[in-house]
Amino acid sequence: MTGHPQHAARSWVESANDHPDFSLANLPLGVFSRDGDEPRGGVAIGDRILDLRAACEAGLFLGQALDAAQAASGDSLNAFFALGAPARKALRDALQALLGEGSTQREQLQRMGESLLQPMERCRLHVPARVGDYTDFYVGIHHANNVGKLFRPDNPLLPNYKYVPIGYHGRASTIDVSGATVKRPNGQTLPPGASEPTFGPSKRLDYELELGIWIGPGNSRGEPIPIGRAADHVAGFCLLNDWSARDLQAWEYQPLGPFLSKSFATSVSPWVVTPEALEPFRCAQPARPEGDPQPLPYLYDQGDQQQGALDIELEVLLLTDAMRSKGLAAQRIALSSTRTMYWTVAQMVTHHSVNGCSLQPGDLFGSGTLSGSSPESLGSLLEITQGGKQPLELANGEKRTFLEDGDEIILKARCRRDGYASIGFGECRGRVTAAAGMA
Amino acid sequence: MTGHPQHAARSWVESANDHPDFSLANLPLGVFSRDGDEPRGGVAIGDRILDLRAACEAGLFLGQALDAAQAASGDSLNAFFALGAPARKALRDALQALLGEGSTQREQLQRMGESLLQPMERCRLHVPARVGDYTDFYVGIHHANNVGKLFRPDNPLLPNYKYVPIGYHGRASTIDVSGATVKRPNGQTLPPGASEPTFGPSKRLDYELELGIWIGPGNSRGEPIPIGRAADHVAGFCLLNDWSARDLQAWEYQPLGPFLSKSFATSVSPWVVTPEALEPFRCAQPARPEGDPQPLPYLYDQGDQQQGALDIELEVLLLTDAMRSKGLAAQRIALSSTRTMYWTVAQMVTHHSVNGCSLQPGDLFGSGTLSGSSPESLGSLLEITQGGKQPLELANGEKRTFLEDGDEIILKARCRRDGYASIGFGECRGRVTAAAGMA
């Protein structure tokens, strides 16, 4: 065990040990396919995907773990999300026993070879669930401050911000998985100084670095989820890129909020990282400074205040066509953290349902852009370039105010803590392609 | 034929003839169940529902009409919507032949009795499709003006209004069918003069009179629907009540738009009135006054300008507990029309998809509140009472600024034109019940 974190159990799947993302401590779920086969549920372990359907057919699970594995064997994880925490934990325990170094079934499993453990590089990953409703929050307080300053230098945060976990309904039909290209949207914009809008490709295309939250069992209409039970309704986490056309947004968003400026694309990472994997990385809510108002009682739970925040490192990288053609690696353009969330995930869940709105398995939340307070931790080009006024200078000499065709944005996330195996989210990639020609 | 509109073919289903809503000229589709049976598709004819599954099993349809009837036989109309106009028209033609006075199959059908033609009063009606995404527009220009005046007396319409069909994403999970009760939502509000919000039941609960639009085949991501093809993607129409908690809305809506103030409930009428039934009631766009800017080219189609608007009479009735206990009928509180729409349905479809956003069969649009210009034609209490300042006086002596528990709102719609059978939408009803107790 020397040199290994004390809480990091080893696996007989060699690539899992010391894997930066997918060690035995993580075991995120996703939906994959190979060679044009039907998509089905799987679990990431090292450089492999454990095929849950094959595992069920081989009789590897019993009881609640079997229920969970069967529910996760189809072409979406909705049924698995609906089962909630007990079944999810049972599956996790069973998988850790099967895949652990001391597994009694190791030889049987090894004999199954690739029929059980598919090489990840040969598989295609899919959006892990059918998204019923997608809600995008705005809980990154530095982002809210930074964007507010562009419009209201003296009064950046609106009066409701520290009371209401602000959110809005997003578009579910255009959620796609990491790797899908993003076509630059056409739309109406009001050029500077003009009194009439023009129509054409967005000139201010941006990304937003967000945490995605997959919803589990959910609630019936009219029956709010109390804050103390909110965690029971969170199925897992992913990375989310809320692509945004800032020029469309500026022209369209009054009075009802963002619409076409966001609805052309939202990218998510394919792996659903479970609350159990993130357990060691929970922390007290750090972003609410002393002197700020206490949350209203329906949003306040002592356990949530002390353990409801997450300590996940977030990263944004940019790979341009020029870098790609010279064989350069993607350049990091931001390093941030989920510790910048002003509201916890539990507060988001409870607020969303407090009016009686029903949440359903497979609903997706975005956190809103998670920028830090330093210039190196900003989660959008809007903030980095101060609304397009200060270009970002890249290491290869290129400059960017907003995204150009060919630019690829890569989001990453990792949890680190001394004595624990690191937990990675994998990647959320998306490359911008040219706008559709105009008819 | 004396005394009957010249274009109104008669049916051997006697209750259909001269029926104010469901004559042979209408034939709207819906999803119904009886005695706890599985929900399935049907067609309203007089006081009956034609059971499409029974009709298919009896071999009443052939070719495209059979395809359409089979697609509409399940527990939602999504597959039927996906087929588009040719199949929908084939089914309409087949139904008009089968149910017309001169039908050659009349005796066979009459022998089938209630197994084919269920008594509507003994059936339960359901939301007719699984709604993927729900979008609420804001195309009622008088409503936009009236609401704008409450906030900005000198400048009620924002500069984008006459260029952009303003809309926002709504909540799909809380769409319910006419007849479902609406629980008053709890939420945060900022009392007048206060600097901190309080939490409790909404005190300013309101309705909104809207036209609902069901989306048909739809488009692939990244492939906008040109204005000249937009009508191909409209499957039908309904009434829609966009219940709104004005006090929650005022506190939460900056900067991202309405959220919990709307997401607790949206009611729709159960019958999908087809574009074919509404064909005689198309008209030129009347609401865009001379001198207003022309639509940008992507939103302009000459045929749409000349025939793309709809002439549908809209009505709001209120039934209070006091009226109900005295056996009084519901009181009409507004009479309006779809001629108040500043943008056509085709313009809404094309605008929504112009950024590459994919529309899918079963997506639902709301038009936004359709108020007229007169005091008797206002589609919400917010407008009738001028933001709660001028109570509405009811005939029985009651007053309302906003809705009270027990109040029932009934929306109706009808098309009338000399020489044509009238086409009705049926009703969209919803009764307010008390807020959930606070934990």
From TrEMBL, chains A, B:
Pfam families: FAA_hydrolase, FAA_hydrolase_N
Protein's GO biological process: homogentisate catabolic process; L-phenylalanine catabolic process; L-tyrosine catabolic process
UniProt domain Fumarylacetoacetase-like C-terminal: residue ranges: 142-432
Binding site for Ca(2+): D136, E208, E210, D242
GO MF terms, alphabetically ordered: fumarylacetoacetase activity; metal ion binding
Keyword Hydrolase: yes
Enzyme Commission number(s): 3.7.1.2
InterPro entries on file: Fumarylacetoacetase, Fumarylacetoacetase-like_C, Fumarylacetoacetase_C_sf, Fumarylacetoacetase_N, Fumarylacetoacetase_N_sf
Positions bound to Mg(2+): D242, K262, T266
Recorded superkingdom: Bacteria
Record keywords: Calcium, Hydrolase, Magnesium, Metal-binding, Phenylalanine catabolism, Tyrosine catabolism
Active site: H143
Entry binding sites for substrate: Y138, R152, Q249, Y253, T369
Pathway: Amino-acid degradation; L-phenylalanine degradation; acetoacetate and fumarate from L-phenylalanine: step 6/6
Domain Fumarylacetoacetase N-terminal: 25-128
The protein's required cofactors: Ca(2+); Mg(2+)
Keyword Calcium: yes
NCBIfam families on file: fum_ac_acetase
Protein name from the UniProt record: fumarylacetoacetase
Organism annotation: Stutzerimonas marianensis
